[in-house]
Specification:
Layout lengths: L11 H25 L5 H30 L1
């Protein structure tokens, strides 16, 4: 993925690619934390819960928009 050029509009496909890369990175960090961290950091747990809620809300929104595209 090329560097983002903030002087130009980001296409939907490019933004999905950027989110995908960032999400993948976050999930790897969370897995590593769970597998290798000896401390139970409450801020990491809260961040993981927040990520889960964001993904759940986003999934509902995306599915509604896909249905709308299919209808119209």
């Amino acid at each position: 993925m090329p560097l983002l050029d903030y002087s130009k509009l980001l296409t939907f496909a490019d933004s999905v690619e950027a989110v995908s890369i960032t999400l993948h990175h976050a999930l790897i960090n969370l897995r590593d934390h769970v597998a290798f961290s000896e401390s139970d950091d409450p801020s990491t747990r809260r961040a993981a819960e927040h990520l889960s809620a964001l993904l759940e809300d986003a999934r509902q929104d995306v599915e509604q928009l896909i249905a709308k595209m299919e209808r119209g």
